[in-house]
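Reminder: ligand-aware prediction takes two inputs, not one.
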Amino acid sequence: MSATSRCRICDGTVHEFIDLGRQPLSDAFVVPGDEKKEFFFRLATGICESCTMVQLMEEVPRDLMFHEAYPYLSSGSAVMRAHFGELAKRFLTTELTGEDPFIVELGCNDGIMLKAVADAGVRQLGVEPSGSVADLAAAKGIRVRKDFFEEATAADIRKNDGPADVIYAANTLCHIPYMDSILKGVTQLLGPNGVFVFEDPYLGDIVERTSFDQIYDEHFFFFTARSVQAMAERNGLELVDVERIPVHGGEVRYTLALAGARQPSAAVAELLAWEAERKLAEYATLERFATNVKKIRDDLIALLTKLRAEGKRVVGYGATAKSATVTNFCGITPDLVEFISDTTPSKQGKLSPGQHIPVREYREFADDHPDYALLFAWNHADEIMNAEQAFRDSGGQWIRYVPNVHVS
Ligand code: SAM
Ligand code: TMP
Ligand code: ZN
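Here is what comes back for the chain with zinc ion:
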């Protein structure tokens, strides 16, 4: 029998289906000399037998992850800048056309989405607990509250600013285990015809692609239309639209409204049917996923070990949060991967969490191309491949591990 825990949505029994072992905080890059201070926890995932929500078995305290030195910068990708720019335009021409409209974003990070809203002169508020990135958003002219969104924050915003037409969160809601407080806050803050829109990695894509590196400390929930619908209904909300989006390895954008306020679109029933056909909520499906993950680990270590024996140079590309799961679960040490190239200044000069692979600036990759690049930022593959023709021209090859280990 697998290990169990209590569901953070409905208090049902959560059955574990994969154990990725002892893992560090995925975004806690280590200053050389501080290796002994790292925090570790057991990274494992299970499914709730009642509401079908897939979630972590152990929760990491939020202040350990989201703080003044949180290093993730949303604007590091041109594709993501375009993605959020288009969404802002869509909000501005649909939900934000009434008299003095108001949008609240949870986890606005460096302001990648709200910038266009602020520039259009529409009332906005970003709620962002990580101080360094919140300051970057504020510097773009965005109104930012340095805080965790939860019920009390929502009540306070409602008192000061009135109801919101849109509450939005990208790659943030799945980071928040205290969902009860969030959804109570959302129902208080939302205007009668307002919408709560959020987009996060989709369990359907994770299972189809075996993208197990989407599992890390910050990703607490792995949503489906079915589990989101159940979660909404428990809280006086209704799932009224879903949209599959191609970013970050496959996500779904969910739209919730107050129960009865809007007619659900046909896309909701279609996605629910697709999930049922794929047996996404069945334990056996997730056990098969776990088996596929172990094969990726074995294949990747075999390949890296063979390349080391041949004297080839392998460098990691993108010190993503996801790469912490891959390197620590597979046991990828600095003798297998020489360094990881990353464009984020606050990650450079540090060591990767857990395995302590040096993170170096991009120039070191470009100036002395390795034989192989291990693509940790595979979710930005198109953008990166376009930019790295010179690496390929120099004879360089890419190692990918999603959906399986392959060299191209
Ligand atoms: N929305 C951006 C994007 O999609 O690129 C940023 C995503 S980042 C992975 C997650 C963000 O959520 C972080 O900036 C973190 O500080 C923020 N966050 C975590 N818990 C939060 C909470 N309770 N309320 C608001 N933001 C939160
Ligand atoms: P993400 O997958 O969570 O968006 O993180 C992507 C990481 O990869 C981030 O640390 C920035 C880095 N990166 C590069 O180094 N070069 C690139 O071209 C891109 C798109 C990202
Ligand atoms: Zn549940």
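The two ends are 40 Å apart (CA to CA). The mean pLDDT is 98. We will return to this case in the review session.
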